[in-house]
Every structure is written in structure tokens, then in C-alpha cells.
């Protein structure tokens, strides 16, 4: 292995071992170093997996982090245990009484949507012993989030049915909804998906938007209910963005009265979040849509010459 790669791996190990460094240190030329990490041999990458997942600053570099996430997932998805990467995942999940750094690495393993979340159920089944052990260890240690992840995965392995995300990092819930293909199947989950649009910083936010956008006709009535309550302007702004970007204009008619109410008499909270301006934009778009020239139907039968 090149010396530069070795020094970076050593740095990652140091970051994992020393939490104070982990929260403050930013290595020089980190983007170049992450690019080097992407090209490490599989065995070395697997060996460093806990350190990589524990180094929270790695996730701040989205492009490289996503590429690294994809590489780890693709390797796991295309192979079967035992091999270095599967062993690294297994060892990480089986670590007894984890330190804060190890718990952080375990949480990131679940939180990175593309690693475990996207694996076929049959491959997740291979991790059942590790997940069961983690559930026991995390529960005993009072690490409720980790215990919830383990419990969620075990339940999904046992019964992989569609469900709304149970937490802001529940990529497994989003993945389960891929099986939904009709409006009738999606309808029971719409309210739950809309609820996750209350904060755009939640990791499941965009995935919920994507699922709702598949069936925009189901969104109008529950969005109208939220706008009528006018008690969460941040949520209202997210819902109006959803309407503007993913709901066809021809479906906006039911929302007109609330758009007018917000544009003309917004609450102080709505004014602070500038929801009134958003509502005005949609009203203008709706007015243009409704005023558009309509094609006249051709009279039935042949044209009669005079």
C-alpha cells in the first residue's frame, strides 16, 4: 500500500480511538485523502470500516461520502460472507459493550441509507445473529437508538412489508415503500410521509417527498387540512413547495381558498417563514393556468360549405 494511504489509515484509527480529535481534527487535503480511500484494496477498506464510520467529518464531504457508501454497498451486495467486508460489518455489529466511538460507527452503518438499507432481504438475513446480539447489547447499555435500529431490521427481515419511516434515519422504511405501486396501496402511508416533511433537515425528508410525488392526487386533501390548522408555518412551507414542485396545477383548485387566506391574512408565524409569499406565487400560477386558452371542440360532422 502507498505510504500516503497508510498514513491516512493510521489517522482514521487515531480518530476512532481519540474522540476529542474526532470532533475537531480536519486533516489537510481531506478531499484528496478521501479520493485515495475510495481506491484502497477491499481488504484495507474493510479493515478501516469502523474508523471511517466513526469519523463524523467524513460525512461532511457529500460527494466522496456517497461514493464511499456506494462502494461499500456494492461490495456487500455482490458478494456473500465470509469475506473481509462482511466480516468487518459482522464484527462491528457484534462488538460487546461498545464505546461511544464504536456506537457512533454502528449508528452510521445504519444511517448511511445505501449500505445495509438497500441490501436484499436474503443478505440481511445473514446478519440476523449480529442484529440480535446488537439488540441485546444496546438495550442493556441504554443505547435506545441502536436498539431501535436492530429491532427494526429484525422485524423487516421477518416481515418485509411497506411502512412509514419510524425515525428520521429510517431508510429501511423508505426502502419498504418501493413495493407500493398503486394509489390504493400508498393511501394508508400518506399522512405519515407528510409528517416527515416538518423539518427539511431530517434525512428521510427527500425520500418521503419522492414517494409522495409518485401519487400527487393523494396529497391534496391532507395538505389542505394542515394549511387550515395554520399552526406550523415551517411545515406549511414544505408542503407548499411539495405542491409547487410535484402536484399538477390542475389539482390546486381545492387549495385556492387557503392560498388566498395565507396571502391576504397570514399568521405572524406564517409571515416569519414567508409562507405568504409562497402562497402568492402559487395563486399567480393557478390564475395563469385557469386563464389559459382552451381548445374548442370541433363540431361533429363534416364542415358545410356556404
From TrEMBL:
> Where is each DUF5071 domain found?
164-283
Q: What is this protein called?
A: DUF5071 domain-containing protein
* Source organism of the structure: Mycena chlorophos (Agaric fungus)
Amino acid at each position: 500500500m502507498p505510504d500516503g494511504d497508510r498514513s491516512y489509515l493510521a489517522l482514521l484509527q487515531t480518530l476512532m480511538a481519540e474522540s476529542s480529535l474526532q470532533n475537531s481534527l480536519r486533516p489537510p487535503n481531506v478531499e484528496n485523502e478521501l479520493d485515495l480511500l475510495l481506491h484502497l484494496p477491499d481488504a484495507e477498506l474493510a479493515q478501516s470500516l469502523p474508523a471511517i464510520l466513526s469519523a463524523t467529518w467524513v460525512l461532511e464531504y457529500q460527494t466522496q461520502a456517497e461514493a464511499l457508501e456506494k462502494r461499500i454497498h456494492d461490495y456487500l451486495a455482490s458478494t456473500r460472507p465470509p469475506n473481509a467486508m462482511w466480516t468487518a460489518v459482522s464484527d462491528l455489529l457484534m462488538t460487546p459493550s461498545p464505546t461511544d466511538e464504536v456506537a457512533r460507527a454502528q449508528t452510521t452503518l445504519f444511517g448511511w441509507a445505501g449500505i445495509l438499507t438497500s441490501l436484499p432481504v436474503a443478505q440481511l438475513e445473514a446478519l440476523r445473529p449480529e442484529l440480535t446480539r446488537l439488540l441485546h447489547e444496546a438495550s442493556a447499555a441504554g443505547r435506545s437508538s441502536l436498539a431501535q435500529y436492530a429491532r427494526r431490521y429484525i422485524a423487516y427481515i421477518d416481515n418485509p412489508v411497506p411502512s412509514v419511516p419510524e425515525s428520521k434515519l429510517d431508510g429501511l422504511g423508505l426502502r419498504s415503500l418501493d413495493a407500493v405501486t398503486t394509489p390504493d396501496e400508498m393511501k394508508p402511508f400518506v399522512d405519515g410521509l407528510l409528517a416527515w416533511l416538518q423539518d427539511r433537515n431530517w434525512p428521510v425528508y427527500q425520500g418521503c417527498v419522492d414517494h409522495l410525488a409518485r401519487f400527487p392526487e393523494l396529497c391534496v386533501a391532507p395538505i389542505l387540512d394542515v394549511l387550515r390548522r395554520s399552526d406550523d408555518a415551517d411545515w406549511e412551507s414544505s408542503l407548499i413547495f411539495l405542491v409547487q414542485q410535484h402536484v399538477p396545477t390542475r389539482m390546486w383548485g381545492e387549495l385556492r381558498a387557503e392560498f388566498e387566506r395565507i396571502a391576504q391574512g397570514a399568521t405572524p408565524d406564517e409571515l416569519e417563514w414567508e409562507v405568504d409569499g409562497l402562497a402568492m406565487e402559487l395563486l399567480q400560477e393557478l390564475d395563469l393556468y385557469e386563464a389559459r386558452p382552451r381548445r374548442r371542440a370541433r363540431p361533429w360532422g363534416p364542415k358545410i360549405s356556404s
